[in-house]
């Protein structure tokens, strides 16, 4: 049964997404083993770039979400502002922040620009449900990878430069380097693919919230009418059905048309609850059974499904909304390699460890550093729903590689591609 369901989903997705453009056989086999639906790779050695692409219409000009890789670009902008004399690494950021980002914690006044760049300011990594402005460690005390810190960095950049982050990126990075298909704004990308298990999780997050809210409303209405017109058991299947419909409409817009399957599933189970309402044991046992069945289905079937790219916020945010191409990122990596060789200007500080994470890993002012017997590599990765990517610079061998994928399984694949090309046994991972 599991194989049949997997095959059906793959066939449906294949019909929706059309033909496939192939890369090299070896990389394709690696991609298949990781259930990768598409990728665009740029490999550079001795200034010669080779592109390799795979997926529906994907080439080196195809736009992907690069997520956290935007942090490196924003760090580069901040360092350029230092070259212009508008900032210093030891500047206290509170001088440049909007009032809305200043908290009652006095430690906010101790945070420096350098600490933001190398993730030692003390902020949380999480900002999904609003910006967590709490400081979890004293500024400068410990490495704590933080998207929140880079939201603060964006505010500093915008107030110092007098430009939005998009304008600043165009001024200091995209236009000078010829990166014509890069932006922090909302833009059309290649179709992302999410694991079915992730889609099920998103599905239940929305469904459960709506379901509970409706139950509370029904209970309150019943209480006010002394349950003359409302009963908990009678309202439960109705709430279930409405929550399923609301959830499906939401997911149709945000995730994918494929989740109409979940809508039909919820409608069927709501009807089942309604018919079983007279048998208390069956009625109440059905609810956990339904939940377990959906989760088991989602996590047991190892397939990815196409989704929309509307999951991530549309407002430009340097911490996670970067969109770019392998061609554009090759231009940016070329610039970083040149800055490494020139060792002139503030960008050189990117490549010097500002904080040690462990015996192998450290962080410069904007980029991760991994030290191995084969020499140092400089890297950053990005993860958004349906997109994972990685770039690695290896100056000692005059090499760099960029791997962009439209898959939830893309990071491990990207690491293997990087290892094969660079001939370095790197892990390119840090505590988050």
How would you explain this protein's 3D organization?
By secondary structure, the chain is of the alpha+beta class. Helix content is 44%, strand content 14%. The strands form three sheets. Strands 2-1-12-11-10-9-8-7 form an eight-stranded antiparallel sheet, with helices on both faces. Strand 8 and strand 9 form a beta hairpin. The longest helix is centred in the middle third of the chain and has 29 residues. The N terminus is likely disordered.
Name a few traits of the molecule.
432 residues, alpha+beta, 12 helices, globular, disordered N terminus
Give the SSE layout:
Layout: H1 2-17, H2 25-33, E1 39-45, E2 48-54, E3 64-67, H3 70-83, H4 113-117, H5 147-161, H6 165-177, E4 193-195, H7 196-224, H8 232-254, H9 260-275, H10 280-300, E5 304-306, E6 322-324, H11 326-342, E7 355-356, E8 361-363, E9 368-372, E10 375-384, E11 387-394, E12 399-405, H12 410-422
Antiparallel strand pairs: 1-2, 1-12, 3-6, 4-5, 7-8, 8-9, 9-10, 10-11, 11-12
Percent in strands: 5-15%
Average pLDDT metric: 85
Order of helices and strands: HHEEEHHHHEHHHHEEHEEEEEEH
Strand order of the largest sheet: 2-1-12-11-10-9-8-7
Distance between the termini: 38 Å
- Total E-strand runs: 12
Q: Given the structure, what is the number of helices? A: 12
Structural class: alpha+beta
Shape: globular
Integer-rounded radius of gyration = 25 Å
């Amino acid at each position: 049964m599991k194989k049949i369901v997997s095959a059906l989903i793959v066939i449906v997705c294949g019909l929706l997404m059309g033909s496939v453009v192939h890369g090299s056989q070896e990389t394709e086999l690696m991609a298949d083993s990781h259930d990768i639906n598409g990728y665009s790779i740029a490999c550079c050695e001795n200034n010669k770039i080779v592109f390799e692409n795979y997926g529906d219409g994907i080439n080196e000009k195809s736009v992907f979400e690069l997520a956290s890789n935007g942090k490196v670009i924003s760090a580069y902008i901040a360092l350029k502002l230092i070259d212009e004399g508008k900032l210093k690494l030891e500047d206290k950021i509170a001088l440049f922040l909007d009032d809305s980002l200043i908290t009652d914690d006095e430690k906010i006044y101790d945070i420096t620009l350098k600490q933001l760049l190398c993730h030692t300011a003390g902020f949380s990594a999480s900002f999904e449900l609003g910006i967590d402005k709490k400081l979890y460690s004293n500024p400068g005390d410990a490495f704590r990878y933080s998207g929140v810190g880079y939201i603060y960095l964006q505010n500093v950049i915008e107030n110092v430069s007098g430009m939005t982050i998009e304008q600043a990126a165009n001024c200091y990075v995209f236009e000078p380097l010829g990166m014509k298909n890069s932006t922090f704004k909302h833009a059309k990308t290649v179709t992302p693919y999410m694991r079915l298990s992730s889609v099920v999780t998103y599905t239940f997050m929305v469904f459960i919230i709506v379901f509970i809210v409706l139950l509370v409303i029904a209970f309150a209405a019943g209480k006010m009418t002394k349950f003359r017109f409302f009963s908990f058991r009678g309202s439960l299947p109705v709430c279930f059905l409405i929550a399923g419909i609301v959830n499906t409409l939401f997911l149709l817009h945000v995730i994918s048309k494929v989740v109409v399957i979940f809508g039909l599933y919820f409608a069927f189970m709501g009807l089942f609850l309604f018919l079983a309402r007279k048998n208390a044991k069956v009625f109440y046992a059905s609810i956990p059974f339904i939940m377990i069945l959906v989760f088991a289905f989602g996590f047991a079937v190892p397939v990815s499904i196409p989704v929309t790219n509307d999951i991530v916020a549309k407002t430009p945010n340097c911490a996670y909304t970067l969109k770019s191409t392998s061609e554009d990122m090759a231009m940016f990596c070329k610039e970083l390699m040149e800055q490494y060789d020139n060792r002139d200007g503030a960008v050189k500080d990117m490549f010097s460890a500002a904080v040690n994470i462990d015996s192998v890993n450290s962080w410069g002012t904007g980029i991760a550093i991994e030290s191995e017997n084969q020499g140092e590599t400089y890297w950053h990765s990005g993860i958004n729903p349906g997109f994972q990517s990685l770039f690695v610079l290896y100056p000692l061998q005059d090499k760099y590689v960029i791997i962009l994928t439209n898959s939830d399984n893309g990071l491990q694949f990207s690491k293997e591609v990087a290892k094969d090309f660079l001939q370095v046994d790197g892990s390119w991972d840090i505590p988050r």
